[in-house]
Amino acid sequence: MIAVSATSVRTRRVLIVMPALNEQASVAAVISQVKDALPGTDILVVDDGSVDQTAQLARAAGAQVARLSVNLGVGGAMRTGFRYAAARGYDVVVQVDSDGQHDPEEVGALLALLDDGADIAMGSRFAGKGAYRAVGPRKYAMVALSLVFSRLAGHRITDVTSGFKAMGPRAIKLFASYYPAEYLGDTVEALVMAIRANLTIAETPVVMRERTTGTPSHSPVKSAVYLSRAGLALLLALVRRRPSVDSSDAA
After folding, report:
1. 32 in Cβ contact with 61 (< 8 Å)
2. Residue ranges of the domains in the chain?
3. Residue 88: helix, strand or coil by DSSP?
4. What is the per-residue pLDDT for 251?
5. DSSP class of residue 93?
6. Which residues are within 8 A (CB) of 172 and not within 5 positions of it... i.e. 6 or more apart?
7. Are 101 and 118 in contact (CB under 8 A)?
8. What is the spatial distance between Cα 19 and Cα 187, in angstroms, rounded to a whole number?
9. Residue 144 has what pLDDT?
10. d(Cα 54, Cα 56) in Å, to the nearest integer?
11. DSSP structure string for 179-203
12. Number of helices and strands in the chain (H, E)
């Protein structure tokens, strides 16, 4: 584990973006963990159409809150976060789940990759740390996506669908202009966009914690659906054209 340097945090503005849908049971605890692990950073909880007390509890815990009137999914929530960051001059956006799966203590490893020149730093569940294992059709989808994206990027990418990421200024500019909201678009299509924009992507091994609330979707039927959707998301990503980081319509 790499500790977050206090000097590093002070010399750049870091925004933690936490997409949240009906996470009243966990959101306050996760905000507290982020504050303990990352002093000096700002936190934005994007309430993605929750019908519970997520927004109120997040605000009471000390986070800024952006409320979406309808559920847009993780992609729509993160797009809001990127636009918030771009408008306010943040240097780094770190995506942290509100259900407790991501360990804020490991954000330092992501920031270290940005210090080394990466535009996007991803926490990988499959890079040799922890006991996370994908099974069945989900495993096949992960392997296939890894092979395709490793070829596209020119280096190995082991965890294409990781939602634990830190993104620097060039990535913020690109994703504030357009960030996919479709299912898996926030991972699969976003990475295709980043590769086409010549952004540098790096990975570091992380441990995925058990979620503190909610129910994981690991049934055979759901895994098969995941495999089909992953393939479709990749196909759409490869045929679509989106703004580049240097285009005039980028934020």
Report:
1. yes
2. 6-239
3. coil
4. 44
5. E
6. 82, 85, 86, 90, 91, 92, 93, 251
7. no
8. 14
9. 86
10. 6
11. ---STTIIIIIHHHHHHHTT--EEE
12. 9, 7
- Report the predicted TM-score, pTM, of the whole model to 2 decimal places: 0.84
Beta bridge partners of 122: 165, 203
Which amino acid makes up residue 240?
Answer: R
Task: State residue 125 phi and psi, 5-degree precision.
Answer: -80, -10
CATH topology of domain 6-239: Spore Coat Polysaccharide Biosynthesis Protein SpsA; Chain A (3.90.550)
CB 232 within 8 A of CB 141: no
Residue 79: closest CA among 55, 44, 104 = 44
Provide the 10 A C-beta neighbour count for residue 223. Answer: 18
**Burial degree of 243 (CB within 10 A; 0-12, 13-18, 19+):** middle
Span 208-233, mean pLDDT?
60
Given the structure tokens 């096949």, which residue do they identify?
140
Give the N- to C-terminal CA distance of the chain in Å, as an integer: 34
Question: In the predicted model, is pLDDT for residue 79 greater than 70?
Answer: yes
pLDDT level of residue 132 (50, 70, 90 thresholds) = low
